Amino acid sequence: MKAILSKLRPSKRLVVILAAAFAVSAASGGAAVYVGRDRLVARLSEPSASGLECTALRTLKLDHRGQRWIRMHVKTDSAAGPERVRTALRVVGALAKKEKADLYQVVVLDTAGPEERAAARGAAIGAEVLFAPGPQSVKGMDEPFRASYNDGTANPGGMFHGKLVSLGLDEVRAIMAKMDDHSPCIDPAAADAEGAEAPAVSEASEHPAKTAEAHGGH
Predict the structure, then answer these.
(1) pTM of the model
(2) What are phi and psi of 15, to 5 degrees?
(3) Would residue 157 count as lying in a domain?
(4) Which of 12, 19, 56, 114 could disulfide-pair with 119, CB 3.0 to 4.6 Å?
(5) What local confidence, expressed as pLDDT, does residue 215 receive?
(6) Does 50 reside within a domain?
(7) What is the pLDDT of residues 65-76, one digit of tens each?
């Protein structure tokens, strides 16, 4: 029996080779785990194609000489300009699917920005989208979309002091084509409203698109 075991006993050289092989295998497995984890973290940190989670601040339904406008102010946490405008495009799409209107406007504000309607303009705007399904019927709208964002970051007061960046129609279409989420903003007032329609507000401007821009500070 001892003779058989002695024959099966591996040589020192074989033991060294096997030990080295197992060490390399273990190291490779550990490296694979870390590489996989790094890739996952990198993927999670990538900007969403559909923008950011947002909270609805107010929705205004305006009546202008037989035309219906819907203007929405929403808030997001601090984010880059492209993420803000993607958020606005997603929300305007969700809004258009929910309600019919001649002109939609979504204005993105920072969470630290102003709450009052009159103050939601100028440097308070992080991104803005105007959408007219039939632009030929809305004065001042040459194309269905008008989208822009401020390339600055919000200061502690929620104000943006960067440059205004406008997107072309092809850019808007490309962004919307890549979206995998079409959800609206969280609306804290939705439960209280229980589907009640907000009263229409009459506006006297003859140029809806220009009026929307005036409220947006452009």
Answers:
(1) 0.69
(2) -60, -45
(3) yes
(4) 114
(5) 42
(6) no
(7) 789 999 999 999
